[in-house]
Design goal:
By secondary structure, the chain is mostly helical. The chain contains 2 helices and no strands.
Length: 70
Amino acid sequence: MLETLIPLVVNKSVEVVGILLEKFCKWVLSDTNTKSANNFLKMQILVLYLDWVLQKTPLKSLPEESEEHD
């Protein structure tokens, strides 16, 4: 009896994992998640570019702050 029960449990587990994996892939590749990931990637590229520009800009070329005395 145990010899037949183990393969049935394993087969059912494989089916359940397959169904869950299929649903997960559909969720990950949905339009909403794709657009969100695209916007996040664009924002990260912009932040990296700004960081690179600010690191390349020497402090001498930045405008000096004007001090106002009351």
